[in-house]
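Incident log, entry 3
Record: Transcriptional regulator (206 residues)
Problem: checksum mismatch between cached and fresh output.
Input:
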Amino acid sequence: MYMPKHFAETRVEVLHGMIHDYPFATVVAKAADGLVANHLPFELVGGLLHGHVARGNELARLDGAEVLLVFQGPDGYISPNWYPTKQETHREVPTWNYAVVHVHGRLKVIDDAAWLRRLLETLTDRHEAGQPQPWKITDAPDDHIEKSLRAIVGLEVAVERIEGKFKLNQNHPARNRAGVIAGLRERDGNGDAELAALMAQQEQAS
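Fresh output:
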């Protein structure tokens, strides 16, 4: 990944936090007929990422394969009109701000019903937590759950390398970054609030 030094995010706790908040990853692997990409939610457990796929998925046949997992955080178009310096020099252009985490590792395929059930319980408990009446695996008939478990395999990726790119106008003066945060909050489009909040967090940490 192209990584200008001012956009590099190296704090492990920040990278793990991004994975926790945006757990839906693009998984890229090399199969017999070339590169394949799949899109799956993962759970970070220590230095391991856990997920699952249908048995028919090509990833279920790629035990030991080298993989790249891409976790995409908030992103959005940035208008040069939001920069105070644009009003002074007119030497500003549009850009796109974003945060992304890349995880490199090797895929381990797990065919273990008890392991899979624990993973599914963890995933559903976490993602159902905000519901008025959270759904649990025990809400479904046992035979249906057992049939569903037979149709999937688990995936585990040990994190060998992790890198983050948080492109948030760090190459601009602080007043331009403040202008972007204000512009995002005013526009309030899809993902703008999350991107503005991330930029504000970065400002507080710097």
